[in-house]
Amino acid sequence: MKIMKMFCMSFGWALALGFVHAQTVAPAALEGPISSIQQAGANVNVVVMGITVRVRPATVITTPTATLTLAQLLDTTPLPGRSEAGFVGGTAIVEGNTTAAGVVIADTLFVEPAENVVIGIVTENSAGVLKVNGMAVTMLADTRIPAEPLRNDLGFEIAREAITVGTIVALEGYYSASSQALQAFILEATGIPALNPGLQVSILRAQGRADRGELEVRGGVSGVPAGATVAVQIRAPRANGTSRLLGTVTAVADVLAGTYTYRFRAQGITPFPANIFARIVRAGETAESATTEVSL
Questions:
Q1: Is 22 helix (H, G, I), strand (E, B) or coil?
Q2: Of 165, 189, 213, the domain-final residue
Q3: N or C, which end of the chain has less CB nearby within 10 Å?
Q4: Is the pTM of this model over 0.90?
């Protein structure tokens, strides 16, 4: 579905501009296995499903958790738990244009070894050993695809030692047959208190419809006493460093002590924001979430 959506958008754009008939340049979108990554002068050629993709210095290159340089893309050092050179044998998602010769010029390139997801129960977490449903888990330290901080289900950073046996966790990464371990870059645990005891607010999801001005935002709050009234502001940043208030919602207490959840819904928002953040002002203290792109 992801690649078909990319194709439909690109194809419609091409027809509107007449590029399909000109046959000098056309939009390109592909997703598939990587068979080689080679230096090509100032550029890098990545072969995906037999298609040559030209990656330039201006191409935005990302992995699930990092933005790469051309040198990092070319790095042949095997990623942890793998024997292949760098990202060879992994998956690429490309968006860009195709030349008349059939070469894809990438505007954006996303690469990863594989996309493996696990939701399960922690069966061991001691002496540096972490297992989920009996499967070993290693948190990645490679700068090309580093693990994000461990978080709870409200998006707040947690301590690894706080994750007890029996905790439900969600993991993303790639499985290594050689090490028989999931090389993970994301771990989210349910019911674990935030590492930082102070006031915090998060955005877990932000989605909307610009044509209707509809916006829905979900997130969490941590570091407030039981019984407190927690008002969460949803704001849109301005270019001059200020922000615009879109609305306010009252958070409700969660099962975990000191935490709250909220769900903000609004209609008729104009101009519709591309990015938003959440803010809490309480007892003279202010906390803000990271700025989040609204998914349309």
A1: helix
A2: 189
A3: N
A4: no
